[in-house]
Amino acid sequence: DAKTTQPTSMDCAEGRAANLPCNHSTISGNEYVYWYRQIHSQGPQYIIHGLKNNETNEMASLIITEDRKSSTLILPHATLRDTAVYYCIVRSGNTGKLIFGQGTTLQVKP
Amino acid sequence: DAGVIQSPRHEVTEMGQEVTLRCKPISGHNSLFWYRQTMMRGLELLIYFNNNVPIDDSGMPEDRFSAKMPNASFSTLKIQPSEPRDSAVYFCASSSSVYEQYFGPGTRLTVT
Questions:
Q1: Is A44's CB within 8 Å of B103's CB?
Q2: Which of A46, A87, A97 sits opposite B48 (nearest CB)?
Q3: Nearest chain A alpha carbon to B4
Q4: Do A46 and B101 touch (CB under 8 A)?
């Protein structure tokens, strides 16, 4: 599975959009981009995934560049409850394995 | 839906003792995963099952660790004998597809 690179930490003002970048320059054609988050002392929570096209659900939007070498997770209106570690994971579509990196710690501030 | 259920939530034991962690996956899910999280190593996959069969146990640290899934609604992770370096939070997750995994609340294990 391709490796990912994320900033260690980011801040965001409450009510503003949070844009979390992820670099996955070695991604291959059959690998999906996944985002999970882990709120303090809880288990990780699935957010969204995508292959080539941009995706949106009730939690977030995922923007994948045309060359698929990077992506951005967008939380449109961040709240204090969105403070968490956000993990970007690249994984082959036919395997169940998730390999977590260090993630980005997002701090949403009032 | 109760989600993934793990027990106990906290376990404190002495070095050398046997520890058994339990997991009940979400009903209808056919894949089950055991992860371990420490400050030093982050979140690591230990083993995962598909339809009760172990598929990949390459993350199991050593022979002291064993995992079983006797049926679709129950799995155990056993450490025997336990060591202080096994102290961590152990998460169980389940899924019904290759896309989403649903994690339990974790078991915080402390080995003294």
A1: yes
A2: A97
A3: A43
A4: yes
- Residue B37: C-alpha distances to residues A31, A41, B64 (Å): 25, 11, 17
Collapsing DSSP states into helix, strand and coil, what is residue B96?
Answer: coil
Q: Write out chain B residues lying below 8 Å of A99, CB-based.
A: 45
Picking from B111, B80, B66, the residue whose alpha carbon sits closest to that of residue B18 is: B80
Full pLDDT tens readout for chain B, 112 residues: 689 999 999 999 999 999 999 999 999 999 999 999 999 999 999 999 999 999 999 999 889 999 999 999 999 999 999 999 999 999 999 999 878 899 999 999 999 9
d(CA B88, CA B110): 7
- Asked, as a colleague might, if the bond just before A44 is cis with ω within 30 of 0, I would say no
Does A42 contact B33 at a Cβ distance shorter than 8 Å?
Answer: no
